[in-house]
Amino acid sequence: MLKGHHNVNYILPLGLVLACLLGTVPFARIKYRVPLQTIEVVPRIWPQEADVLEVVCRYLREVPRCLAVMGDRSLHRYRAGSALSERNPNGFVGEELMRSFAAFFVKTALVPVEELPAPPRGWPNDGDSDGFLRWLVDFTEERVHLPNRDRFGTLFDAVGIPKDAMLRFSESHHELTPRSFKLLHTDVHRANVVVSKKHLSVIDWELAIYGDPLHDLATHIVRMGYGKQEQERMTDLWASAMERAGLSELTAGLYEDLGAYVAFEYAQSVFPDVMRAALAIPGDADEQHFRAAGEQVSRTMGRAREPLDLVEVPSLEQMVEALRTWHSAAVPTAVS
Ligand SMILES: Nc1ncnc2c1ncn2[C@@H]1O[C@H](COP(=O)(O)OP(=O)(O)O)[C@@H](O)[C@H]1O
Ligand SMILES: [Mg+2]
Q1: Thinking of the domain 2-121+178-266, which architecture would CATH place it in?
Q2: What is the distance in A from the centroid of ligand 2 to the CA of 90?
Q3: Are residues 90 and 230 in contact, defined by beta-carbon separation less than 8 angstroms?
Q4: Nearest ligand 1 atom to alpha carbon 206
Q5: Ligand (nearest to CA of 191)
Q6: For the chain, what are the domain ranges?
């Protein structure tokens, strides 16, 4: 059993009969994916991952395909190898793997967008990078911040998130250069990368969207935990790979606008990170649990300081105290 943020995945060998019925290799391993009940913190514009995978697997042959969908559960091929998060949880990934990531982003950008499922109504027009970033900001405000104020509002306030956080962010991040919209994965971090014999395969396409490719690069460089030099190297490799593939228009305004998407990643993460930290504190928590949660919140708020234009953030002690107060008033059977 493998548990991610959004699903529980059961890895099973497939018997002969079922393999024949599903049109795949007998005795190969498969992944049975069962969604978890979670708070919505990231946009999901295409409800069925299988619809996206159908298109993706035509062009990225290494991505494990979906074999069957049963309501909200699904069966996927399981790729032999190990997750990068197990092999290398936070160290340098190295030049070779970074080049593979750059090649992955090129292949993803080359997936014909007309084959993708339609985006939701009101989706920003192709090339409207400014509208795309605004859509992401509005999603964070309307679907993540506001619906969770009843339960977490006092905690958000106490750890120093301004009520108008998203508005502040928008005011200082706009007028992006137009870039063509492409398929984006949006969650290319170590736990979503399976490596075998130096080849990589990116799994977990349920958060894929259609939009400005710089957003994909930004979530990647932040969520991989790259240091400054690695971030720069990855950006350069991304740009040269796009240029070599004839996609140089995607690199327009790269060095100015990547900063806006990186800032957005830090700004939006204050809501999920604070909620996750609070919900991870057990009912019978001791001092260490509160301190660990406080340290996590403190890191998140530190990273959001510039993007949210915060003059001051509360001290670690104040954050620990805020979590303690929230926890003592919280419903004990809180679901995560
Ligand atoms: N084919 C695979 N090979 C190795 N590890 C895998 C594979 N599929 C999933 N995993 C592991 O299981 C975890 C959860 O799977 P994932 O599909 O990313 O689900 P979630 O949507 O919950 O993140 C992954 O982060 C990875 O560590
Ligand atoms: Mg995952």
Answers
A1: Orthogonal Bundle (1.10)
A2: 16
A3: no
A4: 21
A5: 1
A6: 2-121+178-266, 129-176+269-329
Q: What angle do CA 82, 262, 239 make, to 5 degrees?
A: 75
Give the ligand with the smallest distance to the CA of 193.
1
The per-residue pLDDT for 333 is: 46
Q: What is the pLDDT of residues 181-224, one digit of tens each?
A: 999 999 999 999 999 887 899 999 999 999 999 999 999 999 99
Residue written as token pair 């024949």: 20
pLDDT at 335 over 60: no
Q: What is the mean pLDDT of residues 288-301?
A: 98
For 294, the token pair is 């406080």
Q: What is the pLDDT of residue 234?
A: 98
d(CA 200, CA 80): 11
Q: Which residues line ligand 1 (CB under 6 A)?
A: 2, 4-7, 9, 31, 64, 78-79, 81-83, 85, 191-192, 194, 203-204
Point out the ligand 1 atom lying closest to the alpha carbon of residue 85.
27
The ligand minimizing its distance to the Cα of 49 is 1
- What are the tens digits of pLDDT across the range 318-333? 999 999 999 999 865 4
Query: How far apart are the CA of 283 and the centre of ligand 2, in A?
Result: 27
pTM for the structure as a whole? 0.95
Partners of 200 in beta bridges: 195
